[in-house]
Amino acid sequence: MQPPDLPAGAQLLSVDEVVDALVTGDHADTATGTVALDAALIDALRAGLLVACRLSDGRIAFAPTSNKQAE
Questions:
Q1: Cα(first)–Cα(last) distance of the chain, in Å?
Q2: Which of 18, 19, 54, 62 is the most exposed place for a label (fewest CB within 10 A)?
Q3: Cα separation, 21 vs 27, whole angstroms
């Protein structure tokens, strides 16, 4: 799988890094997130349907993968 092009200053995150950030609230959008949304994102990440990166401002961005095996 080829990761998507990242914006300047963004860092591609592993699934474990994203899960840790979502569970611990270690990201810029903690105040607007919900447990249900975090759980759905974690499920999609673990299934290979999404990849994530940390943007230079601390937010986490998600993008769909082209992982046909996850379908």
A1: 14
A2: 62
A3: 6
User: What is the sign of the dihedral through the CA atoms of 18, 20, 26 and 29?
Assistant: positive
Q: 50: part of which helix (H) or strand (E)?
A: strand 50-54
What's the pTM? 0.77
Domain positions in the chain are 11-66
pLDDT at 44 over 80: yes
| Edge-first strand listing for the sheet containing 50-54 | 11-13, 50-54, 60-64
Give the residue among 36, 44, 46, 40 at the shortest CA–CA distance from 64.
44
Whether 53 contacts 60, CB under 8 Å: yes
